[in-house]
Write a structure and sequence with these properties.
single chain, alpha/beta, 5-stranded mixed β-sheet, 10 helices, 37% helix
Amino acid sequence: MKLAIMGAAGRMGRTLVRIVHETDGCEVAGGLEQPGSEAIGTDMGALAGIGELGIAVGDDPLELFTRVDGIIDFTSPAASVHFATLTAQARIVHVIGTTGCSAEDEAKFAAAGRHARIVKAGNMSLGVNLLAAVVKKVAASLDEDFDIEVVEMHHRHKVDAPSGTALMLGQAAADGRGVDLDAKSVRSRDGQTDARKRGDIGFATLRGGSVVGEHSVLFAGEGEIVTLGHASGSRDIFARGAVKAALWGMDKKPGLYSMMDVLGLSDL
């Protein structure tokens, strides 16, 4: 499978180049950076620290998408929406790990899924998706006597909050309870907040250092707390999940899929 990496010069982009190169059944076929980037024209293998591959970073998605089988995209909401329009035209696989997308963005991804095979998830790791499945089950089993809090920490450079993974876990809890996350979500507390409302799903966001990602979901009842969690030690887990998603999507019908579909967890 010929794969192109969006944001090829970034930290995640360089990790993806390395993982695609190491994975049987696929190859690095190109990559993009924003026009004007100093990385344009640079060998992608050299950027990733794996030796030259003879493939340079470009800035023209129209040309690139005509000669690849799929793209992996951990960029920005605006860029991902633009790429989705192009992948729909090219009818290729589009794996989206971008976070911070709006409801309008999500609607555009769904529309693109009528022609492209799009796999989108707030987190591409196997462990986190298993955690989300367990959170849904636990939320369905414990009633509103147990308060739900989602706690996440990431590196100082992360620009969206709560993280896409935290929102995914919050959505899993809301699905388990059969409630609307937007109606129950509490994103901040400051000053006189009054007592916690029964059934709320709270989010706490921490930022600092070089933390790749740590997430916990707490079910706090009277006299006991159930804590479910996951810690990411390397970006490799996200890259490997994204490559697995791309290979999975090769023979699928057009549609908007999630990692739950890729991992066979959608029925849990």
